[in-house]
Write a structure and sequence with these properties.
By secondary structure, this protein is of the alpha/beta class. The chain has three domains: 6-69, PUA domain (Archaeosine Trna-guanine Transglycosylase, Chain: A, domain 4, Roll); 78-185, Transcription Regulator spoIIAA (2-Layer Sandwich), CATH 3.30.750; 207-397, Rossmann fold, CATH 3.40.50. Helices cover 29% and strands 30% of the residues. The strands form four sheets. The protein has a seven-stranded mixed sheet, sandwiched between helices. Strands 2-6-5-4-1-3 form a six-stranded mixed sheet. Helix 10 (313-329) links the parallel strand 17 and strand 18 (331-341). The structure holds S-adenosyl-L-homocysteine. Residues 202, 207, 210, 214, 230-233, 235-236, 251-254, 257, 281-283, 302-304 line the site of S-adenosyl-L-homocysteine.
């Protein structure tokens, strides 16, 4: 690889790489030699000429290169990918007991040493997202390894997120290996069955990161009147109903998600009369419930990402404050609020501060009962804090 194109960084800009953070921003680069194309492996050097990393070049992106390896002897290519994917699967085997679920995130991008690669297993279907120029360059090798190592019968691609555009790549989605599933694809998670739409659902079809939090909140639901804001296909609602909730009102703006939620309710033999589904904007709906004097003993808020980066944190903070404040106004004394943020740009500390502000404005005292994070198949590397995007709080209104 002596002839690999070379990126030389500006003085002092090697610091984040020495801490093993895998992103190289365009502004850190002093010189590019050897005319690398999108996805090509580049040899990254400090201003003093020392080797820092092998990375994948991405000329269209602000994140101009993503590190494959900090070890000069570890040349990027199928052998390295085989080891990384193998290690990712071993980690899942070690951390998620097989009886928990048959739906798992097998590869979680940077946090598994594979920047821009996501692979979710839903029963015997694998759904992949190829979100970086580097992974696109090695697409065939990555898919072949994933197919073999996962043993999945079919692979569906869902590289149709905005992340791809930022990398200068066009959207790509559809079945890429095996034959289409015959009928609906079904998974089981903590004993609850869900139909997953891998072709048209959000993300890769399901929010796997909330697996254990859904189950935990379900255990707290007995006898409670619950409100489930941003319900998607009913995850928290089904868990709460299975846990003995008196009723659950679910709100989501997506009609197809609610349709699937209703099918999931039936799939689990749960009584339809305890579940109410509302297609609406949660921001407005919470205000509407307040005017109707509705009250609840359990509120779940699991909104989409409001702040992809710290730059958006302030605007996002206003959004979180608004829904949480309005949710607190609907919560009876002794009621529980399970509230989440999946915004990478909002730190756990900031999220807790926002909740403290909402509580002050609502004039209530809140007991911090539990903290939540993403399930173990969404690992976090200490050197890549962006991987710790999901946080949640369980608060009891005193
Ligand atoms: N809790 C869910 C995942 C929620 S994902 C689960 O366990 O599976 C976020 C959901 O918010 C998506 O279903 C999306 O359709 C919905 N959504 C986004 N913006 C919304 C809004 N303003 N009002 C209502 N729903 C919204």
């Amino acid at each position: 690889m002596g002839a690999a194109p070379r990126l030389t960084l500006k003085p002092g800009r090697e610091r984040s790489l020495l801490r093993r953070h895998p992103w190289i921003f365009s502004g850190a680069i002093a010189e590019v030699r050897g005319a690398p194309q999108s996805g090509d492996t580049v040899d990254v050097r400090g201003a003093d000429g020392h080797f820092l990393a092998w990375a994948a070049y991405s000329p269209a992106s602000q994140i101009r290169a993503r590190v494959w390896s900090f070890d000069e002897a570890e040349i990027p290519g199928p052998d390295l990918f085989e080891r990384r994917i193998g290690a990712a699967l071993d980690l899942r085997r070690a951390t998620v007991p097989p009886e928990t679920t048959n739906a798992l995130r097998l590869v979680h991008g940077e946090s598994d040493g594979l920047p821009g690669l996501v692979a979710d297993r839903y029963a015997d279907t694998l759904v992949v997202q190829i979100l970086s120029a580097g992974c696109e360059r090695w697409r065939d090798a990555l898919i072949a390894i994933l197919r073999e190592r996962s043993g999945c019968a079919r692979i569906h691609e869902r590289s149709d997120t905005e992340g791809r555009e930022l990398e200068g790549l066009s959207a790509s989605a559809g079945l890429i290996a095996g034959t289409a599933v015959d009928g609906p694809l079904e998974i089981v998670e903590h004993g609850i069955r869900y139909e997953v739409d891998v072709a048209a659902g959000q993300k890769t079809g399901f929010y796997l990161d909330q697996r254990d939090n859904r189950a935990r909140v379900g255990l707290l639901a007995e006898g409670r009147e619950a409100l489930n804001g941003f319900s998607y296909t009913g995850g928290f609602a089904l868990c709460a109903l299975a846990g003995g909730a008196r009723s659950v009102l679910s709100i989501d703006s997506s009609a197809p998600a609610l349709e699937l939620a209703k099918r999931n309710l039936a799939l689990n033999g749960l009584e339809a009369d305890r579940a109410e589904w509302l297609e609406a904007d949660v921001f407005g709906a919470l205000r509407g419930l307040r005017t109707e004097d509705r009250q609840f003993d359990l509120v779940v808020l699991d909104p989409p990402k409001f702040a992809p980066t710290p730059k958006d944190a302030e605007r996002a903070a206003r959004g979180y404050k608004d829904i949480n404040l309005n949710a607190l106004k609907l919560l009876r004394r002794g009621g529980l609020l399970a509230t989440f943020s999946c915004s990478g740009g909002v730190s756990p500390e900031l999220f807790q501060k926002i909740l403290a502000g909402a509580a002050a404005d609502a004039g209530v005292s809140l007991l911090l009962r539990e903290r939540y994070r993403a399930a173990a198949d969404h690992p976090v590397r200490i050197e890549f804090p962006e991987g710790e995007y999901l946080k949640g709080l369980l608060l009891e209104r005193l």
